[in-house]
């Protein structure tokens, strides 16, 4: 058995060591506490400066902790700022954060717009056309705003209200105030001086109806005039788009002209490329006519057409330019009759009348038109059995103002078939040398063989005929020729009967005697 012995000296040394260790631990703890206190004094004392910040749209949001916290520079080194949830390029309310030690601070960020739009004026002089509306933005070079959305208004005179357009009605210089506003209500105001002048005027643009395969001069009858520059027709531009003369369709054509001040005028015309039949049908139904519309390539350009719904009275004045009076001076007197224009083409106006009228010869014979003007005629051919004849007048012998008004009659075989059944209102107009003499009205009584002087049946009617009426057009209430006055006979106890040569025989003989194809419906 081993036995250890310790002396009193050893025990004292051991105790001293323990005491020293305890003292050292106490000193270390006190030092550590002192150091922590020093760090606290240096680092921890911070305070939030505010709980919200205002940021101008488009500006960069600061990430400097000193803008968010109050504290020493050393202390603020230990703070972190988080602005990732803020979009400075879009108006709104956002949240940013700042962390320091174990604490996090939050801030409400208002992105606002207090800056008016930036407006750049035009360097050159601004000209406006009288009576034309302009958008206010057209008067400036450009306007920009970070919000991306701006509105324009203008004030064009003292005491005038703000408007979304500029309209000047007087020639000369004028002060215009342009107001450019953004979504936040910020307004930029710019004063500019404009010169008001008349823009070029483009005349003669309208609808044009062209037969397929026929090219039309789009500049014909179109004229550009300007108060300052004069006639600018030669400088007119035409944008034909996809116009194709070979393909049926409706096309838009834009005419434009610019004067020396840069004032521009645009007019849009419409070109309708149609088949010959479709074009002829538009004329025949009076949907278009050569006086009001531009027509090219039609075989019946001068046709009066026929109304769709009308009365006799509506047609009486309208059909006058289609009628003629025939007068023959003879050595032993004179003879007269009536007729109507059946066709106009090339260089001649073609007249239809009775054979017994056109057979008359004399020292002087003329066709008199509705306005009292006259011209000599030549007989083409005639048929005694049908009492039908045709003459023609050279266009060169007709006064230009008269020729411009003349028209040929319309023949509609469907309307003629109705007249053959009877009960259709009819009328006849008689011209003398000075123009309209009188009008007779009546109705159709149907086909008849009673007028034995002709080989073919005639159309009988109640329209009263007298001497000099021979060759007159018998027209229905729509303006179609259904017959030509030929004669009368008296029947005991039944009075006088009136007859006309039917239009089907007139049409047949016209085409065989002249070689012209006449459009009918």
CATH class of the domain at 413-514: Mainly Beta
Report the count of strand segments: 35
Basic shape: rod-shaped
Amino-to-carboxy terminus distance:
153 Å
Total DSSP helices: 8
The side-by-side strand order for the widest beta sheet comes to 27-26-23-24-25-29-28
The level of helicity is 10-25%
Secondary structure category: alpha+beta
Q: What is the subunit organization of this protein?
A: single chain
CATH architecture descriptor of the domain at 413-514: Beta Barrel
In short:
With 521 residues, the chain is α+β, with helices and mostly antiparallel strands.
Features:
Immunoglobulin-like, alpha+beta, seven-stranded antiparallel beta sheet, six-stranded antiparallel β-barrel, 16% helix, 521 residues
Descriptive overview:
It is a single chain. By secondary structure, this protein is α+β, with helices and mostly antiparallel strands. Among the domains are: 47-112, Immunoglobulin-like, CATH 2.60.40; 118-197, Sandwich (Immunoglobulin-like), CATH 2.60.40; 201-296, Immunoglobulins (Immunoglobulin-like), CATH 2.60.40; 413-514, Thrombin, subunit H (Beta Barrel), CATH 2.40.10. Helices cover 16% and strands 41% of the residues. The protein is built from eight helices and 35 strands. It has a seven-stranded antiparallel beta sheet. The radius of gyration is 50 Å and the shape is rod-shaped. The N and C termini lie far apart (153 Å).
């Amino acid at each position: 058995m081993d036995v250890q012995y310790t002396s009193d000296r050893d025990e004292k040394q051991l105790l001293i060591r323990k005491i020293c260790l305890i003292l050292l631990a106490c000193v270390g703890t006190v030092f550590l506490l002192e150091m922590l206190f020093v760090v606290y004094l240096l680092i921890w004392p911070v305070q939030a400066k505010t709980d919200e910040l205002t940021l101008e749209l488009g500006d960069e949001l600061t990430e400097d902790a000193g803008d968010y916290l109050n504290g020493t520079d050393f202390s603020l080194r230990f703070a972190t700022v988080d602005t990732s949830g803020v979009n400075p390029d879009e108006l709104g309310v956002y949240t940013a954060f700042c962390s320091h030690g174990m604490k996090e601070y939050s801030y409400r960020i208002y992105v606002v717009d207090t800056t008016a739009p930036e407006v750049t004026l035009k360097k050159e002089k601004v000209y406006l056309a009288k009576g034309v509306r302009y958008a206010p933005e057209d008067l400036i070079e450009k306007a920009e705003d970070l919000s991306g959305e701006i509105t324009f208004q203008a004030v064009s005179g003292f005491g005038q209200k703000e408007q979304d357009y500029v309209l000047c009605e007087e020639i000369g210089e004028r002060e215009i105030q342009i107001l450019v506003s953004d979504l936040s209500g910020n307004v930029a105001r710019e004063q500019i001086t404009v010169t008001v002048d008349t823009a070029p005027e483009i005349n003669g643009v309208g609808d044009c109806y062209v037969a397929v395969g026929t090219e039309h001069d789009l500049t014909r009858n179109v004229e550009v005039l300007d108060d300052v520059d004069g006639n600018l027709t030669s400088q007119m531009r035409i944008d034909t788009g996809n116009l194709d003369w070979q393909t049926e369709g409706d096309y838009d054509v834009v005419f434009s002209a610019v004067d020396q001040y840069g004032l521009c005028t645009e007019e849009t015309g419409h070109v309708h490329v149609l088949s010959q039949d479709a074009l002829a049908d538009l004329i025949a139904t009076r949907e278009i006519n050569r006086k009001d519309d531009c027509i090219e390539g039609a075989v019946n350009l001068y046709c009066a057409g026929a109304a769709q719904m009308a009365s006799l009275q509506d047609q009486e004045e309208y059909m006058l330019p289609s009628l003629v009076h025939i007068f023959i001076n003879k050595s032993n007197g004179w003879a007269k009759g009536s007729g109507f224009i059946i066709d106009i083409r090339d260089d001649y106006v073609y007249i239809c009348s009775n054979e017994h009228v056109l057979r008359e010869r004399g020292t002087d014979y003329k066709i008199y038109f509705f306005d009292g003007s006259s011209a000599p005629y030549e007989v083409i051919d005639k048929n005694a059995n049908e009492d039908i004849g045709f003459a023609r007048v050279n266009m060169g012998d007709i006064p230009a103002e008269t020729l411009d008004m003349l028209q040929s009659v319309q023949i509609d075989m469907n309307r003629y078939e109705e007249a053959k059944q009877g009960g259709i209102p009819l009328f006849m107009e008689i011209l003398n040398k000075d123009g309209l003499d009188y009008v007779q009205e009546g109705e159709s009584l149907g086909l008849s063989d009673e007028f034995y002087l002709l080989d073919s049946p005639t159309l009988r009617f109640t329209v009263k005929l007298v001497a000099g009426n021979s060759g007159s057009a018998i027209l229905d209430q729509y303006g179609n020729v259904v017959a030509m006055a030929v004669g009368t006979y008296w029947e005991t106890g039944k009075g006088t009967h009136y007859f006309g040569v039917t239009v089907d025989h007139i049409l047949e003989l016209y085409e065989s005697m002249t070689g012209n194809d006449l459009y009918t419906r």
